[in-house]
# Entry
Amino acid sequence: MASSRSFTEEDRAKALERARQTLRSEAEGILKLIDRLGDSFAEAVETILRCRGRLVVTGMGKSGAIGKKLAGTFSSTGTPSLFLHPAEGVHGDLGMVTGEDVVLAISNSGESEELVKILPAIARIGAKLIAMVGRTQSTLARYAEVVLDVSVDSEACPLDLAPTTSTTAALALGDALALAVMEARRFTKDDYALLHPGGALGRRLILRVQDVMRTGDAVAIVPRDALLRDAMFAITRAGAGAACIVDEEGKLVGIITDGDIRRALLADEHALQKRAWEVMTPNPHTITPDRLATEGLREMQGPPKIGEMPVLVDGKPVGMLMLKDLVEAGIV
# Structure
């Protein structure tokens, strides 16, 4: 609802003070949770670790919004998880819950009508119940095998009505639970990347050199005794920036870049008649297909900085790793 009154300097000062009080209240609410951590938290971690099914997170209203976020956090850190809306649960969605699952129910009061209605059914199904609740003597707490106390002294809301400090505390404790479970699972960066293939982190941790290197006709390979002119034509045909120079057995002995060719011509206008071995850079930086693309990037960033790197198997070039391809793949 828009206000027609002007926003005065006094209003600005009050807004800043309200913001400070809100942040202070919510920070204090989180800090007080630390002293409450104990056996129940450890039991909650163990319960989730031993779960043979999925973690089903549920909650109404603002607690539900926190629950959706936590379900995502658990899923992305190695614990298969989903969110169940209590109001949908009483109309059939409880069918997604099995006796192999663990239910994490979030409620400040522990008496939300829609949530309370599904508790007897969860008990009959046989799923274990963890309650993240602000009242440890509530209906929700009585149904739960494990109770996590997320009570706060008051809300940051000046009316002490809107869920603010309580939801922040629930979010923080939920994150703590998810990360404790993640660590207990020995969940690694590689595991995380596997679940995030579309993200920048996933690409950096998953993509191998073989996934981004150029192969086939896109790789210029020239015998060491070929003319520099032939190397130039090979680079042009491949649309590459360099050519791999190989010996009689097909093993790499050097590399010629288009920059090498330009510099050779500036020094000698007849340089195109030279042999490739006379102009090549011997023993260039190389890499194998199974290495991470990020490892190739680090080597290409130097020193010295290079734009192309031959990819070898048993000493023979099978591809070319190019900096611009790494950029296009989102590795940089």
Q: What stands out?
A: The first helix runs from residue 9 to 34.
